[in-house]
Amino acid sequence: MRFIYADSLDVVDPGYDFVKDSNSLGRKPYWDDLYPHEILDRAPYKGMLISRAIVGGHAVGGKYSEAQAMRLRRVGARAFLRLDRDGLRDLPIFGDCGAFSYHKEALPPYSSEDTAAFYDDVGFTHGCSVDHIIFENDESVSGLNGGSPESRERYDITLANAETFLRATAPMRARFTPLGVIQGWSPPSMAEAARRLVAMGYDYLAVGGTVPLKTPQLRACVAAIRDAIPAATRLHVLGFARADEIASFTNFAITSFDTASPMIRAFKDAAKNYYLPNGDGSLRYYTAIRVPQALENNRLMGLVKQGALRQEELVALEKAALGALRRYDKNDADLNETLDAVLAYSVPATLGAPIERLPGSKSVGTLRERYYRTLAERPWTQCRCKICRTASIEVIIFRASNRNKRRGMHNMTVFDGLVDGLELKGNQDVDPTLFGDPSPPERAASSPLICSARL
Fold first, then answer.
1. Which residue is catalytic, options 7, 10, 33, 258?
2. The whole model's pTM is what?
């Protein structure tokens, strides 16, 4: 089971100054910023995925600028992602269409032919057929029973696109592996879709429509699919966002899955922002301490406009919180002193009111408990990765992209190490050259926590 990272231009400035909160002098975004596999000694994933929806174009507005999209096509995905160097040249690069981005449309905005041409133009090694996401899930039906008219139409569209996609990619087969995407409204309908895709000629399938499914529902679907297809058929899970549950999927002979969850949780989860391994195939999580930039945070500036806080007071609270955290990191401040300084600033930033206006608040109590645990256990000192050793307490501070994404990169390394360490019961043998595994000395030559970085 290989962790493929779904990238969204997740880079950091290697020369970022945490104290001044400023980028390195003369920094040129993209050109000077580094991907995880550049800032770390080894890639914290077994491949990368670029969604066509992220790139954007005339059909769907994406995240790439026009210049970035043009460069991707001009130099190819491997050079664009800077995977064109020793130890990285064999990492697979997956592509998909990003079906969630057009889920409200009656038809996908892409054809199989132009998608195949896009994948070939940018040099992907693997690519998914054009699917149309189905949100319905009914575990009570059998066979092809059930399914709304819309779900059935999307089912047929997805299978028809897979057939034309397989034909369109035939000329590039020596350098490209097509994946037929599975959609369905129930485990049996997904199993039947998988069976039909294998009959078309696919030997690598991708399970789509995972976003709305709860973990037990997804397990039921994957189990039904696996039972319906040959053991040698490879299986990929698109958009797997269940880091907590990964161990429960090891019995399904999943070849690969993609996710951005370790990065996204670093700055979008309310509590699970920083990962450490438990040593038993699971993760433990810590809450990052929110110290947003005072004059750039909308909630804080709203409090200033309301008269709840003065701007000078806000800046002083921010300075006190950061100072206390840095002194605590050096053992020059005690825990409770640090916690009080942090909460005085973090409570209004997080809860929208000064702490003195929220006496006895359950939300304040919860925040205090989470921050107390983070500070008391000092997880950044337990991790030996260079991001944590170099950035120290800055990695646990929730504050702007360069800290938050570094925390996400740390999370990816921990997560990739966890996936590597899982006992894959009953999993099929996978040709290692397909994924470009580095030689044994380069692979996890250290513990999952070692992710030496150039900062």
1. 258
2. 0.89
